[in-house]
C-alpha cells in the first residue's frame, strides 16, 4: 500500500504520458492503414483522409471504445495474482513497450498490429516478470483465434460485396444508371451498421441507455438519413463521356467515390472504437489501482473513466495528423490496385468485422482485418492481381510484432522495478 500512496501521483502522470505515447503510435501506424484504401483508390486525398479520420476516430474512441477497453484492462491478466504495485508498473511498461515498437515500425513505414503490440507486451510482463499463472491463458485463445478468423471473415465479406457490385452494377448494360440506383442501398447498410453498434453498445458510459428495439429503430433512421444524403450527392454526378472513352467505368467509379467517403467515415469510427483500447486499457487499469488506493479487486471492477477514453482519442488524432502519412500508402497502393468500387468493398467489410468484434469486446487487429479484406478483393479479381511480395513482408512484420512487444515490456518492467521498488 505504501508504494501506491507514496508514488501515486507520479505514477499517474507517468501512466498518462505512456498511454498518450501509445495512442500516438496507434494514430500514426494503425489509422494510416485504416485510411489507406481511401487514399489508394483516389477517393480522398491524404489531407481529406486525415480530416475524416480525425473526426470519426475521435467519435469512435470516445463514444464506443469502452467494451474492448474492458478486455485489455481485465481480461488478459489476473488482478488477484498480481500485487497492485506490480500491476501498475507492469501496465506502464506494457504501454511504453508497445508505444516504442509502434514508433520504430512507423518510422520504417511498416504496417504492424497495435493489438499484437499491446497484448504481447501485457503477456510479456505478466508471464516473465511475475508468474505464468498471472496470465488468463484461457482468454488468450479467443484473442489469438480472432487474428486468424477476422482476416478470413473480412475477406469473405469483402469478396461477397465486390461480387455483388460486379453483378448488380459493373457487368450490366447500364452500369452508370445501376450505380446510381444501388449505391444508396450500400450507403444505408454503412450508416445502419455503424449506428447500430454505437447506440446499442457504445453510449452507456455517456449516460444514454436504449433498449434493443429503440436502438434498432434509431439505427434504421440513421441509415435512411445517410442514404438520402447520398442520393442528394449522387444527383450531381453526370456521365463524363470523355473519361469513359479512356476507361469505360470512369463515371461509375465517380459514384463509388462518393460512397467511399461514407465507408471511410465508418472505417475510422470502427477503428477508433476498437483500437483506442490498445492505448487506454492498461492506462485504465493503472488509474483504477491508484484511485482505489491499491485495491486491485476494486480496480478490476471499476468502470473505464471518460477522461481516459478522451486522452486516448486525442492521442490517436495527434498521431495521425503528425506522422500518419508515413504508412498511409502501403495498403492503399501496394497489395493490389484499388479503385473506389474495390476500396468501398474492402472498407465496409473491415468496418463491419471490427464493429462486430468491438460489440462483443474482442480486441481484433484492424490491420489484419483490412489486409484480409484487400486480399479478398484481389482474389475476386484473380490471384495475379495480388503483389505477393508485399503481402509476404506484411505477414512477416506481424510475426515479429508480438515477441518484440513482449521483449520490450520485460525490459521496461525490469527498469521501472529497479527505480520504484
Automatic annotation (TrEMBL):
Annotated GO MF terms: phosphate transmembrane transporter activity
A single GO CC term for this protein reads: membrane
One matching Pfam family is PHO4
- What keywords are assigned to this protein? Membrane, Phosphate transport, Transmembrane, Transmembrane helix, Transport
- UniProt keyword annotation of Isomerase present: no
A biological process term (GO) from this entry: phosphate ion transmembrane transport
Query: Its topology with respect to the membrane?
Result: Multi-pass membrane protein
Q: Matching InterPro entries, A to Z? A: Phos_transporter
Q: Which residue ranges traverse the bilayer?
A: 6-28, 49-66, 86-106, 143-162, 183-203, 215-234, 255-273, 304-323, 398-420
Tell me which domain of life the UniProt entry assigns to the organism this sequence originates from: Bacteria
* Keyword Transport appears in the UniProt entry: yes
The protein's location, in the record's own words, is: Membrane
Family according to the record: Belongs to the inorganic phosphate transporter (PiT) (TC 2.A.20) family.
Q: What is this protein called?
A: Phosphate transporter
> Which species is this record about?
Stutzerimonas stutzeri (Pseudomonas stutzeri)
Q: What is the lineage of its organism?
A: Bacteria, Pseudomonadati, Pseudomonadota, Gammaproteobacteria, Pseudomonadales
